[in-house]
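Customer ticket, subject: "Can you confirm the structure for long-chain-fatty-acid--CoA ligase?"

Message body: Hello, I'm evaluating your service for our small team and ran a test protein. I'd like someone to confirm that this is what the system normally returns, since I don't have a reference to compare against.
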Amino acid sequence: TMLVLCTALAGLLLLLPLLGTCLWPYWWQDLVTSTLVIYQGLRGLWRLQRRPPLTLLDSFLEKARSHPEKALLLFGEQVYTYRDIDRRSSQVARALRDLGLREGEAVAVFLPNVPAYLWVWLGLAKIGCAMACLNSHLRAASLLHSLRSCGATVLLTSLDLQAAIENVLPTLRQEGFRVFYLSKESPTEGVEPLQSRIDAASTAPVPVAFRGNVTGKSTALYIYTSGTTGLPKAAIITHTRLCMMASILNVCGVKPTDVIYTPLPLYHSAALLLGLGGSLEVGATCVLRSKFSVSQFWDDCRRYNVTVIQYVGEVMRYLCNAPKRENEREHRVRLVLGNGLRVEVWKEFLRRFGPIRICEFYGATEGNIGFVNYTGKIGAVGRTNFFFKMLAPFELVRYDVEQDEPVRDERGLCIRVPPGEPGLLVGKITKASPFHGYAGDRQKTEKKVLRDVLKKGDVYFNSGDLLMVDREGFLYFQDRVGDTFRWKGENVATTEVETTLAAVEFIQEVNVYGVPVPGHEGKVGMAAVRLKEGVDFDGEKLYAHAKGSSPAYIHLTWKDELEITGTFKQCKGQLVKEGFNPALIKDPLFFLDESKKRFVPMCPEIYSSILDKKLKL
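Agent reply: Thanks for trying us out. I re-ran your input and got the following:
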């Protein structure tokens, strides 16, 4: 009897993993990933609670000591080792100290994708200064606003952006900004060249005392986000958050032997914090491009022996729309990670370029909640489980898109949505999952806070995104709420575009919104305008104005009157439903034609070319 019992017990133990896999097919992946997330979180907290704390900079310095000759950054023909970057960043740190910069101050960095971005960042970190990462496409009022909001008085830029700087320089000088080119000479009066000072500085290690008061709660970076309305907002990134975001590559399985390809702009958190920051944390090599190129993409991957690719959804779509090549499966890429990947593009990418692991993730730069799809489930932005909800509590609550607010019950509390129904994602604000908000305007921070969600007095971060969870725990992105829409990996704030277009002399009133385009990521911009009485529309003039100072959009219609609500808010719902189909819209309709550099009348032929993807948007 005992033998039979032991045999049965042994058989049951052998069957348990198989039974578990049948009932809970992702339990092993959930366990492994949750353990890794907990380990990375505890390790990060332990390092940052030490005195002095061990920040991402210290992770980099550890790597520079252990393998100084290893390549950290590849850019064109240039190769920079860990030692090279360490020495150059020390020179930057000393040069900036000589200018009078001290721990706790912010420095604005207005640069394209160049290697100097990395050693300027680390140089600032070595003296305890926060770097404000200005979007290199900002101009005029948007640029000035971003500079003012971060509290910086020093601006570092390059000759590539000379025209943009000279346009705002009188205002900058009037407001006390010191502006420097990272070059040996300056063609602009009032802008100092800094490179000779940097080259003359010592490459020796910078004293830790220069950053002696830095803690995990100190601001490391300001990353700008358009948010839901208005001008760019400076999201506060603390050293704790920086370490957590840089560790995502660890969670996705990136190793020190990997070569990571980053064709995304460094002023975005994806490229800077995950791409470069993740490389520093893991000890890997990063390939940086000045900008994304479809034609050079796979050639670059072969040339640099790339094993990991960073993407936003549009990058993957461009690759899948490119003409097929015989050698497009000849590469060493094993992993791609990013966000915004549509299901059809996901499937096409795997079919064309091989069985590559795709790690789609979800998160906002300033948010306190994020997900990673570590299972490879097509279409999902992440997965939740018991462990995750303990670490970072979140909810999906019912949302009224027309009223642009959460639905509340008779007690004034939000209502959870069941699986399969889209809901507003909100993340509980706790000590472990804080929301630091934006620099310079507490009102904008408060707008992202939702109170009395599940009980009176609780506080949540409002993501502004609608997500859906299925019965297996997979999360799917549905849409953005409010006025913001997403196009080509960028959030476009309609209020900002409306303000820009309203300055055109023949426009009386304007309403900007996003409309979906079949086969394209996000929504393309469209503007409904009311012309001033007795003034003609000028397609060339509007093109010149729009291309110089606002995010891209392609369709425009004008109307005799724009509908508003009783509280004078512009109505977008009906306009969005109309889309840009000339067969449905009876008002004059125009298309932004890049080849002719003007807005031209939309016709059925242009509309068909867009739907057939023959016309590039």
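A couple of notes from the result: Residues 2-23 form the longest helix (22 residues). Residues 33 and 39 are 10 Å apart (CA to CA). Feel free to reply with more questions.
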